[in-house]
Amino acid sequence: MFESFSKFISDLDYLVVIDAVVFVLAIVPFFIFFYNKRQMKVFAIVLIILGGLTALEIVNVYMEKELFLIARLVMRVLSVFIVVACAVAYGSDLKTFFGRISSNKTKNFYEKGFGNVDDLKTASAELLDAVQDMAKRNTGAIILLTNGAGDFPPNILDTGTKLDADLSAGLLESIFNTKGPLHDGAVVVTGTKIRAAGCFLPLTQNINVGKEFGTRHRAAIGITEESDVIAIVVSEETGIISVGRTGELKRYMTMEKLKEIIEEQFGIASLSQEEEAGRHGGGRRHRNRDEM
Hints:
- The chain has twelve helices and seven strands.
- It is α+β, with helices and mostly antiparallel strands.
């Protein structure tokens, strides 16, 4: 047996090595996906099936005989079954993955010309003020920050009322006033403009979403599964602020963290940091000159 194994190793050529590398590279995406989903038991099952099938095929080629016909057939059927099962069970995650690949996001608001730096800073401050005020009053709201005029599904915009209005805290709060006709839908924001209000969004079909999430939260997850947007949600029951992105929802957002997310989406976060550094640097230079 040892001699056979030694012969097998000696017979290895670069084509076999390439096959091994391809197999490893094929397994890595599975590992990353299931690791991020915290489903390592499922990954172990996938690895066992794919590894078993690969081992049987290697033995069959090495022995140059048609061996393990039934076992190979069973493993092939199991491989097809596990692929189909994963496609069904993780359909929403795969939709998010392919949506991110097909997204034409290349620039942020500032780089695309949806407002200058000062206007975007003002819009960011107005948005933060509105979210904070609505959270204090337990006013339910869902606000979508898109990446550009062509990056958001037009069919969803058509479900609401198009506004094309300047973003302001007062306007946002009036839209989500429970006595208003548009408070149940979502507001779509691009740069410094409120493009539409009262928009209806698709709800997530992910069965792993907690039962504590209401319609707004499920809509935030659903739209971020399909589109490259950021969804800001204010709970009307608790006033808790949540942010949805790439099909995941993070709750208990502080205003500082929300400010970072908005400025990053607007493309002014790095500019704000440079200005802050410049102010500190200028202060140090002034102190040095005073000391001299």
